[in-house]
Each structure stands twice: as C-alpha cells, then as structure tokens.
Design brief:
Layout: E1 2-3, H1 17-24, E2 35-38, H2 57-63, E3 70-75, E4 87-90, H3 93-103, H4 112-122, H5 125-154, E5 160-162, E6 171-175, H6 180-189, E7 211-214, H7 221-256
C-alpha cells in the first residue's frame, strides 16, 4: 500500500497516532506485503505553531513485530530543486540490504556533487527548518487569501466544503454532488484554469463528481483574489442550476404521478 501520511494530496490530512499504529499492527497474508510511507510533505508546514505531527512508523512497526513491513522515504524535490533534489530512504536492515543489492545494478555512483551542495546549503536540520519557514512565508498568505474568500462568499450556504490544512500544497474543495465538472468548465470559460475535476481519484473518476483540488501556491496574491472570487461565483451558479434542476425534476414527478385514491 502506498501512503502519503502527512499533509496528503489533495486534502492536506495527516494520519492520527492510532492510524499509524493500526498500519504497524497489520498482519498481512502475503509475506512480501510492504507499506510505502511517502513522507513527501514531512516538513512543509504553513505555520510555526499549528503543525501536524506523526509518530514514528518504523518504531511502531518494530514494536509490533513487523520491522520489515515499511519503506519510509522522502526527497528535497519540493524543497530545493524540483526533479533534481535528494532522495532519502529509511527502513529495516533487511530491506536496506535488498535495496542496495538492486541499486548497485542501476547506478555506478550517485551524484555526489549534488549531495555535497545540499549539505553545504542546509548544514543541519535547523538550516532545513529555517529554509522551510521561508517557503511558508511565501505560500501561507496565498492559502489564507483563498480560505478567507471561500468563507466570505460560501460560508454557511451549504453548497461547498473545503479543507483548511496546516501544511502541504493543496486545498480540497467539495461541491454539491454532480457540480464539480461544471464548476471547472465555467471557470475555464471565464479564464481561470483549474485542475480537472476528479483528477485525484483513480482513473480520474470521481463517482460523485464533487471534488476539486485547489492549488494556490503559484499565482500572485492579487491574481488569487480574482480567481478565488470567480471560483466562488461559478460554485454559486452551478449549485443554483443543480438545485433548480432537482426541484424541476421533483415537480415533474409529482405532476406525472397518478392521483391518489380519495
């Protein structure tokens, strides 16, 4: 099983302590069953104080008698150079031996220059944390801008729900069932390009057609304000059309129904 346990894409959810322990206590029928613990957003906090915390899966697996069940990995791809960062792997000694045996046939030498420049740049964990604070200072106002507009325009209307993550790169928005594709299409026609509705579902198929992944990290704040307001307008429009369609359908059913016996 493949997991993104912290600030997962798209909701920004993080696993609870009990969820981590339940993974560690699994008793799979297959001896080669493995958990791929993809900690892609492990240090991608938006706030200094409100941060999600994960208990250590490797320690929990060892405690549960499953030391070989998990591969935990991450990279600096979303920290330094996209596509050119450093990867890191943590797992049991048995798994490390297996990985080394495979990788010796894939490369004769790692990019030691890239490794060195990362070490010199960060120096230690404190340097990494300080660097990620700079990331947060850039993207936190963008998240807060979108969330504030959503709350102002859609709060209490019952036509949309959205996550308010403490980290990661995305906000997950749920429309009324059957409206997500229409909202994305309306936004596109008005000049705002969103990730396709249902893009985060297997085969891009959202059975309820209601989920939209919002990625506020790239545009400038002023552009985000315009885009978020337009998005809210499209949500209102599509929701009204959906509700009116349902009311019309119900009215037609009533008119078509045979008269009740006196």
């Amino acid at each position: 099983i493949w997991c993104v346990p912290k600030y997962s894409n798209p909701q920004g959810y993080s696993y609870s302590d009990e969820t981590v322990r339940r993974f560690a206590r699994l008793q799979p029928a297959a001896r080669d069953f493995r958990i791929y613990w993809d900690n892609a957003y492990g240090v991608h906090h938006l706030y200094d104080k409100n941060q999600d915390y994960l208990i250590e899966i490797l320690a929990e697996c060892k405690r549960a008698g499953n030391p070989d069940m998990v591969y935990k990995f991450a990279s600096t791809s979303k920290i330094t150079f996209p596509g050119s960062g450093l990867a890191a792997l943590a797992t049991s000694s048995n798994n490390l031996d297996d990985i080394r045996n495979q990788m010796k046939h894939q490369t004769i030498g790692y990019d030691k220059v890239n490794q060195l420049r990362h070490v010199r740049f960060f120096k230690d964990i404190h340097g990494l944390i300080e660097h990620m604070r700079k990331h947060a200072d850039i993207i936190r106002p963008k998240f807060e801008t979108v969330e504030a507009i959503f709350e102002k325009e859609l709060g209490g209307l019952g036509i949309g729900d959205w996550t308010k993550p403490n980290g990661g790169y995305f906000i997950s928005f749920d429309t009324l069932p059957g409206c997500a594709k229409a909202v994305v299409d309306h936004c596109k026609k008005a000049g705002v390009k969103l990730t396709d509705a249902g893009a985060t579902f297997p085969y891009h198929h959202d059975p309820e057609d209601k989920n939209i992944r919002i990625a506020p990290t790239y545009p400038p704040v002023e552009d985000l304000k315009i885009a978020a307001n337009l998005f809210c307008l499209c949500v209102k429009l599509c929701s009204a059309e959906q509700l009116l369609s349902e009311k019309t359908h119900q009215a037609v059913e009533v008119l078509d129904a045979p008269e009740a016996e006196a």
